[in-house]
Design goal:
Layout: H1 3-30, H2 38-47, H3 54-61, H4 65-77, E1 81-85, E2 93-97, H5 99-123, H6 125-138
Antiparallel strand pairs: 1-2
Length: 148
């Protein structure tokens, strides 16, 4: 593949990922979850289903522990997460989603499904499944985090 073709493919993948992130965010807002940002969704992905420490979240998001702590403070203040004693480490706190946080996560899943259905209408179901399989070969384990 020529450099120009590789750059075009890179740009298309980044545009698709950015567009998907934006459409999920818009869908979450449309479903009544105000005050969230796309970065919150990336944090929710790590916190669901069993919670995480601030350190775990920082590693997942690729940010400092201080930045992750500030993000958690914001999520707690907005009612999307709460801090609990860690069941295995008395020195640590576990950050878990509240009912509102889980509802927001379900809203994001619904919004993502809406976008993917549109992709299916555009590409056809067979091509969409093929695309999914090919992307899973390239990025089998994520992580699902923002490209700061």
């Amino acid at each position: 593949m020529q450099n120009s073709e590789a750059m075009a493919l890179s740009a298309a993948l980044l545009a698709a990922a950015g567009g998907l992130t934006q459409r999920i965010h818009e869908g979450v807002i449309a479903r009544g979850f105000e005050g969230v940002r796309p970065a919150h969704g990336f944090a929710f992905a790590r916190l669901a289903p069993d919670g995480a420490t601030v350190t775990d979240l920082a590693v997942h998001l690729g940010v400092t522990k201080q930045a992750a702590s500030q993000l958690v403070d914001e999520l707690v203040r907005k009612g999307y997460a709460e801090r609990r004693p860690h069941p295995e480490d008395a020195r640590a706190r576990l950050v878990v989603l509240t009912g509102r946080g889980r509802d927001c996560t379900r809203a994001a899943e619904e919004a993502a499904a809406d976008v993917v259905r549109e992709w299916g209408d555009l590409l056809g179901e067979r091509e969409l499944r093929s695309l999914r399989e090919q992307l899973l070969c390239i990025a089998p384990h994520g992580p699902v985090r923002p490209a700061w």
